[in-house]
Design goal:
Elements lengths: L1 E3 L4 E3 L5 H17 L3 E4 L8 H13 L4 E4 L5 H6 L7 E3 L5 E3 L8 H6 L16 H4 L2
Parallel strand pairs: 3-4
Antiparallel strand pairs: 1-2, 5-6
């Protein structure tokens, strides 16, 4: 496969690691959009937050397949929170905790504030004082 840059072509083998990741991401997304099931680890890697959320929104409304992904970015939670069974958290002892509506609480706020059971992110800023000093 060659990438066309107008005046010249470059074989993907000679492209940067970032471009190669984007090509693999495109292949997975294209497969899922046509009815396949795609699993993508760290989907937010090399993607702008806005594009990440718009891609997820595309799959919610137009995708014919299923997109399963992990991310360190919490912005997709605001896109997915209204869909049942679309957000799962992985606990510190490796079990899944599905998001369920809790009144007006949002998954992003519950996550950031340490309100999801057994998550490793139940920390306070003061917890770092012993590590970095005062």
């Amino acid at each position: 496969m060659n990438l066309n840059y107008g005046d010249y072509l470059i074989n993907k083998e000679f492209e940067s690691t970032g471009i190669k990741k984007l090509i693999r991401l495109y292949d997975c997304l294209s497969f899922a959009s046509r009815g396949g099931i795609a699993f993508i680890d760290e989907m937010d890697s090399n993607l702008n937050d806005v594009y990440l959320c718009k891609l997820i929104e595309y799959f919610m409304y137009y995708g014919k397949g299923q997109l399963c992904f992990t991310t360190h970015n919490i912005d997709p939670m605001s896109v997915l929170k209204e869909n049942k069974n679309s957000i799962d958290f992985l606990s510190s002892d490796n079990h899944l905790i599905p998001w369920t509506s809790r009144g007006n609480a949002t998954p992003e706020n519950c996550y950031k504030n340490g309100m999801i059971e057994d998550l490793p992110f139940n920390v306070e800023a003061s917890d770092f004082v012993g590590i970095f000093g005062e």
